[in-house]
């Protein structure tokens, strides 16, 4: 059986999803993905500020830090997965979270994508935007677990 893709952003919802997936899925091998969002996608800068960010090392420095943090986060997610009985290995990807998840799922031909979800109660209890985007665009099964406090 192919690996499961466990998406981990460090949140309690993502940690809960990893533990719940280990109980539910027959698959034992998993990839734990943490996404590093590029600095130019993270900050709403005016055109002049954006130009400065691109011409100086500011964006590059922030991207390097983000990539390091994503790898550390993926390792923390692997610790959770391993403790839950899965054989997990960490991976990172740079990009916007929903598209990065879909790209990695396709690249590794995973059997299932596992996500935790934050509910936006102000919007009638809808799924978080990343979970909603992934579930709408995925070409493979997606398991979305509500957080432990839901």
Provide an overview of this structure.
- The protein has a single domain, classed as Rossmann fold (3-Layer(aba) Sandwich), CATH 3.40.50.620.
- Helix 6 (129-137) links the parallel strand 4 and strand 5 (142-146).
- It has helices spanning 12-24, 39-42, 47-55, 58-83, 97-108, 129-137; strands spanning 4-7, 29-36, 87-94, 112-117, 142-146.
- The protein has a 5-stranded parallel sheet, sandwiched between helices.
- The model is unreliable at 121-126 (pLDDT under 50).
- By secondary structure, it is of the alpha/beta class.
- The protein contains 6 helices and 5 strands; from the N terminus they run E-H-E-H-H-H-E-H-E-H-E.
- CATH homologous superfamily annotation: HUPs
CATH topology-level name:
Rossmann fold
Number of helices: 6
Strand count = 5
Total tally of structural domains: 1
Straight-line N-to-C gap: 31 Å
Following the backbone from N to C, one meets helices and strands in this order, namely: EHEHHHEHEHE
Strand order of the largest sheet: 3-2-1-4-5
Rg, nearest Å: 16 Å
Query: What percent of residues are in strands?
Result: 15-25%
Residues in helix, %? 40-55%
The largest sheet, given as strand count, sense and whether it forms a barrel, is: 5 strands, parallel
Query: Tell me, what's the shape?
Result: elongated
Broad structural category = alpha/beta
CATH architectural category: 3-Layer(aba) Sandwich
pLDDT < 50 stretches: 121-126
Assign the CATH class.
Alpha Beta
- Rounded mean pLDDT is 87
